Structure formats: structure tokens, C-alpha cells
């Protein structure tokens, strides 16, 4: 009896997560990627596996499932990963109140705690001590170097799970159980489309009918810190407390948002909240901004980067702040508040999309849950 077969289109994190979930269930999996390697949103991010950003309940559990799969893959494939946790830093009483409430609500369900200024500075030398009132510590966050990890996961799936990859192969048409690229055709029992915003090329009418938009973000990389100096946990300014849904459980959060709408109106206009993670060579990844729409200016706005860097200084004390790279990325996001898009485009054809900037954190868990439920 031959193995069941599946085609996955797209070798970003959603495609890789889908390929893994199918392969461990006995499917012969073939992945098609239009470029010679993944170059989209999956490599243009912080490399943060970020459970703290998810509200307590199914999404947090999905994030923790993702984290466990990430760790398993990294350990088995020898991929660098850093289980550093995170710090959300408070310099005002209303910020401190939000993280106090968050810690109290979640202390039995998460690895989190309210830290004094002294405890915070023991966790990280990268924190600005001036005016520090405390921090929320979370132990669940893990960092990977996305630019390398995504390619390494593909190699791992090929070697360990016999997944076949066709690079530089753009699938231009799908017909029943067949994927077509020019004059070439491949057939499979199941087809999964995991191409981010690009799925509108294959299904323009379906894309137009959905409540989906695109988000452009701007990010930067700072120089490797001298003498192997490390910041420890990923560091977050308090604007993140109104960005992530997980903080909505704190009763003080709406008042904090109101103050920010007045004090940081320009930051909120461009969807800016500021975080920093560190890669294995000591470089720092800093961001980001959020601009929504179906078409974006392809050029970076320097004033956005300058706003990010200015806010970064309020909560960090870094050794070297030279910018060595700037870039932007684009991902698909549902406008309805949905956390993902899973839709059947035809018999045996499934689109998995619209994770809205949570791809690194949720993809492995989401795709494991989808495939486990179906097969």
C-alpha cells in the first residue's frame, strides 16, 4: 500500500509547519517554493517565539505547543535557539499597574512574575535603570535566528522526514488534485497553500471576497554588541502592553491606552511598539511598525525608524546602537479579529494563511492542530 501524498505550496514557516505535521503522519510530502529559498515574512522578523503575546486559553496553548515543536526541531537539527524569556518594562505607575494585574491574573497559568527594579537589572544589563519601576518577567519566550532557522528547518525536514523540496518552482495553477508550473504537473491526495499574501495570485476572486488585508512592518538590525555582551531576555517597551491581546485581561490597560493615545499619538498612527531580541552573533533586531492596506509603499520611511530608535532609548541601555541593516516585511492579517484563515479552495485544496504577524509563534501549533484533526 502506497503512502498518502500531499503537496505544500510555500516554504515559509506555515508551509514548513504543515509539511512537518503531514510527514510525521506518514504522508509523502512535496513542497514547492517559487524562490531559491524563503525570502518573505518568515525571515523578516525578530525570530521570537512569543507565547506572552497570546491571550490565556487556546491561543496561549497553541503558542506553547508551537514552542515545544520549535524546540524539538532545533535540538534534533542542531539549530541555534535561546530560551531567554522576556521582560516588559515599566517606567510609570499606570504601566506598573498593568503588569501587576497581568502577573496576578496569570501566575497560576503561566511562567510569569512581577519583578522589582533590582530583580529586573539582575535579569538584564540591557535595561535602562533610570526611572525603572519594575518589569513583567515571562519565562516562555524563545529566540531563533529566523534568517537561518527557516532554511535549516527545510533541510531538517528533507533529511529526517523525507520531504521533497522543489525550489525556484512557481505553482501557477491548481486543477483538482494537481499542481501545475508551466508544462510540469504534480499530483497528490491533498494540497495545502501556505504562501502568505501571495495566495491572491492563485485565487484572486476568493482573496477579494475575504476580510483580509496586508501589513507592512519596518525593522532594523543593530551591530553585534562588543565583547560578546548579551542583553539576556528579549526586552519590550510598555507600548507592547497595548499591542498584544494578552494584556487586555488587565483592568488598568484601557486607561494606559488612553494616555498613550494622547502622549504617543504619532506612534500609534504608525502602529509602532518597540522590542529588541539578540541573535547568536550578538546583533540586535529592533522593531517594529504596522501599516495596513492592500498595497504598500515599497520604500522604508526613515522617520518611522527614527521613532523606533528614539523609543528604544527610553527602556534600554545598549553598548552599540549603530544600525547595520533596515528592511520591511509584509504579512496577511484578517480584519475581523480572526487569528488565522483556514479555508477549502476546492476538493482536497486547503489554504492556511492570515496569522497576522504571529507566524513564528503559532504556525507549528496551528498546523499540528489542523492536520491532527483532519488525518
Descriptive overview:
This protein has 375 residues and is α+β, with helices and mostly antiparallel strands. The chain folds into two domains: 137 residues, FAD/NAD(P)-binding domain, CATH 3.50.50; 177 residues, D-Amino Acid Oxidase, subunit A, domain 2 (D-Amino Acid Oxidase, Chain A, domain 2). The chain contains twelve helices and 21 strands. The strands form four sheets. Strands 5, 6, 7, 14, 15, 16, 17, 18 and 19 form a nine-stranded mixed beta sheet that branches. Strands 9-2-1-13-21-20 form a six-stranded mixed beta sheet, covered by helices on one side. A hairpin with a 2-residue loop joins strand 20 and strand 21. The longest helix has 20 residues. It is globular and about 65 Å long. The two termini are 17 Å apart. The model has no long low-confidence stretch (mean pLDDT 96).
Amino acid at each position: 500500500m502506497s503512502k498518502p501524498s500531499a503537496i505544500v505550496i510555500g516554504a515559509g514557516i506555515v508551509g514548513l509547519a504543515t509539511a512537518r505535521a503531514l510527514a510525521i503522519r506518514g504522508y509523502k510530502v512535496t513542497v514547492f517554493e517559487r524562490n531559491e529559498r524563503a525570502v518573505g515574512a518568515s525571515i523578516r522578523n525578530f525570530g521570537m517565539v512569543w507565547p506572552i503575546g497570546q491571550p490565556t486559553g487556546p491561543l496561549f496553548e497553541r503558542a506553547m505547543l508551537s514552542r515545544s515543536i520549535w524546540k524539538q526541531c532545533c535540538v534534533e537539527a542542531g539549530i541555534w535557539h535561546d530560551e531567554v524569556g522576556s521582560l516588559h518594562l515599566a517606567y510609570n505607575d499606570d504601566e506598573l499597574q498593568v503588569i501587576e494585574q497581568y502577573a496576578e491574573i496569570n501566575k497560576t497559568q503561566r511562567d510569569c512574575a512581577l519583578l522589582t527594579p533590582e530583580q529586573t537589572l539582575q535579569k538584564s544589563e540591557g535595561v535602562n535603570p533610570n526611572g525603572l519601576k519594575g518589569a513583567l518577567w515571562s519565562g516562555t519566550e524563545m529566540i531563533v535566528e529566523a534568517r537561518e532557522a527557516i532554511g535549516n528547518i527545510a533541510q531538517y525536514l528533507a533529511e529526517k522526514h523525507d520531504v521533497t523540496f522543489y525550489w525556484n518552482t512557481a505553482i501557477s495553477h491548481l486543477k483538482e488534485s494537481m499542481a501545475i508550473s508551466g508544462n510540469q504537473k504534480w499530483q497528490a491526495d491533498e494540497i495545502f497553500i501556505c504562501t502568505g499574501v501571495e495566495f491572491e495570485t492563485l485565487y484572486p476572486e476568493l482573496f477579494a471576497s475575504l476580510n483580509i488585508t496586508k501589513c507592512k512592518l519596518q525593522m532594523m538590525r543593530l551591530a553585534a554588541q562588543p565583547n560578546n555582551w548579551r542583553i539576556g531576555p528579549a526586552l519590550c517597551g510598555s507600548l507592547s502592553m497595548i499591542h498584544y491581546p494578552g494584556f487586555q485581561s488587565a483592568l488598568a490597560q484601557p486607561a494606559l491606552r488612553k494616555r498613550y493615545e494622547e502622549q504617543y499619538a504619532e506612534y500609534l498612527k504608525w502602529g509602532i511598539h518597540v522590542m529588541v531580541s539578540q541573535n547568536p552573533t550578538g546583533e540586535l533586531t529592533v522593531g517594529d511598525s504596522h501599516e495596513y492596506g492592500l498595497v504598500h509603499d515599497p520604500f522604508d520611511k526613515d522617520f518611522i525608524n527614527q521613532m523606533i530608535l528614539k523609543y528604544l532609548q527610553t527602556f534600554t541601555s545598549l553598548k552599540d546602537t549603530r544600525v547595520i541593516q533596515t528592511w520591511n516585511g509584509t504579512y496577511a492579517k484578517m480584519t475581523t479579529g480572526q487569528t488565522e484563515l483556514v479555508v477549502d479552495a476546492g476538493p482536497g485544496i486547503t489554504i492556511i494563511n492570515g496569522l497576522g504577524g504571529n507566524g513564528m509563534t503559532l504556525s507549528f501549533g496551528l498546523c499540528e492542530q489542523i492536520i491532527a484533526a483532519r488525518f
